[in-house]
Amino acid sequence: MSALVLSLAPKRSQTLRVYADTSVYGGVFDKKFASVSRKFFEQVEAGRFELVASAIVSEEIAGAPPSVRRFFQTIRVKAVEIPVKREAVELEEAYIAAGIVGARWQTDALHVALASVSDCRLIVSWNFKHIVHFDKIGLYNAVNALHGYGIIGIHSPPEVIDENEEENI
């Protein structure tokens, strides 16, 4: 009798579609987050992640320090650029209506909505108040389900990078 073995880990050849919000790009130059943020983008360049960037990220980066803007310009060539679609704005409004975040933080909700409507499996962020927060993640996904979108993983960079990447190549 043979046992069926189920592997929940993605196959090495499977690339995860990931939306990185603005905080991850800025994290490359933040002493507290630099090492892990750089490792995330190294894994993007190595093909582990298919990076998705939005017009909102581009707008926010425009006001960032020059080092962050230069870094974004170099890494964005690896990214799939997505526009702000009507569906994303409607989903953002649903998040606000559900009380996940207030209207003042609508851009944070829009990042999650853009990732959700663009078929990303993950959104990566250093925003622990309005995005990567255990009280909010389930609510974002509940609203997604109510509006016909799939579940999205919402994580900080340390949760998604492969610390053994060098060993796996």
Top keywords for this entry?
single chain; 169 residues; alpha/beta; Rossmann fold; 5-stranded parallel beta sheet; 9 helices; 5 strands
How would you describe what is shown here?
This protein is an alpha/beta fold and 169 residues long. The chain has a single domain (16-161), classed as Rossmann fold (3-Layer(aba) Sandwich), CATH 3.40.50. The chain is 48% helix and 12% strand. The chain has 9 helices and 5 strands; from the N terminus they run βααβααβααβαβαα. A 5-stranded parallel β-sheet has the order 3-2-1-4-5, with helices on both faces. The longest helix is centred in the C-terminal third of the chain and has 13 residues, at 134-146.
Short description:
This protein is α/β, with parallel strands linked by helices.
Give the CATH level 1 class.
Answer: Alpha Beta
- Structural class call reads alpha/beta
Q: Within the largest sheet, what's the order of strands?
A: 3-2-1-4-5
Name the poorly predicted regions: none
Chain-wise SSE layout:
Layout: E1 16-20, H1 22-27, H2 34-45, E2 49-54, H3 55-62, H4 66-75, E3 80-82, H5 86-97, H6 106-117, E4 122-124, H7 134-146, E5 153-155, H8 157-160, H9 165-168
Parallel strand pairs: 1-2, 1-4, 2-3, 4-5
